[in-house]
Amino acid sequence: MSGERILLTGASGFVGRYLLHDLIARGYRVRAAGRSSISAITGAEHVAIGDLGAPVDWQPLLDGVDHVVHSAGLAHADGDIPEERYQQVNTQATLALARAAHAAGVRRFVFLSSIRAQSGPVSDRPLSESDTPAPTDAYGRSKLAAEQGLGGLDLDWVALRPVLVYGPGVKANMAALVKLARLPVPLPLGGLSAKRSLLAIENLSEAVAFSLTEACPSRRSYVVSDPEPLSVAQMLTAMRAGLGRSPGLIPIPSSLLGLAARLAGRSDAYERLANGLVASPAGLIKAGWRPPAETKAALARLAADPAGAG
């Protein structure tokens, strides 16, 4: 890997920023591409690519590049983003970059897909790559279409399907859970026992690094998650342990919590908390990936870090 050059897209995002520093630490030279400028970092060359929904001239950005890590894309969001927009950014732009990478002689193309390419936000059974993909929204369909498009190219590629990623600077649902854990009051969430898979950002970064090696079988998709799924109650317990506090969780019946969520107009958020989604990383582990972070310990560190959640 020493001296090998990587084009990293999405380098200004939550995941991309972590990947940028980690890849440099591993000895790669990184050409970091993002919509906005990034502060100068030793070992990285920064380029702006603008909106992926518009045509991008990838050829000069791929000059001298050995590998591509494509983490840029339109993130999942509740709202009225048209399906066409997801297809433009997550499918068409990915395949345009992949075709340009093939023409430039890139050796490995790593695509950060999503577990939503495989499933909806909840699942009543454990998921694995052997399951027939069944995305339930425009975001998931756009990611799956990109994976399927990669399969039709004469290119050495790996697609990673991460579950919910957490780590320093995390936002949205996980940031809200960290803020709840930090409240100095008991929480009525002790009855939420359905388990969900999470992914520590350092484990995702290790998966990306492994995917760049010949040891990782290519031209296939992998589920990426921490090996141990946890319930919301277990997550909060781990976070409060990082704060040096007892769990302080009250086991209110889920039916009452569901009613309160409906009255507050938060039914969708509650359903994601109350129902499970377990995704097995067994395929990637069998290939040789070794996740360095243990889930409960990583959650404890996240909660204890004053800047841990955005």
TrEMBL record:
InterPro entries referenced in this protein's UniProt entry, alphabetically: Epimerase_deHydtase, Lipid_A_modif_metabolic_enz, NAD(P)-bd_dom_sf
Identify the domain of life. Answer: Bacteria
Q: Which Pfam families match?
A: Epimerase
* Gene3D superfamilies registered for this protein in UniProt: NAD(P)-binding Rossmann-like Domain
Give every NAD-dependent epimerase/dehydratase domain span. Answer: 6-223
Segments carrying the region annotation (Disordered) are 119-139
Could you tell me which PANTHER family the record lists for this protein?
A: BIFUNCTIONAL POLYMYXIN RESISTANCE PROTEIN ARNA (PTHR43245), BLL5923 PROTEIN (PTHR43245:SF58)
The protein in question is named NAD-dependent epimerase/dehydratase family protein
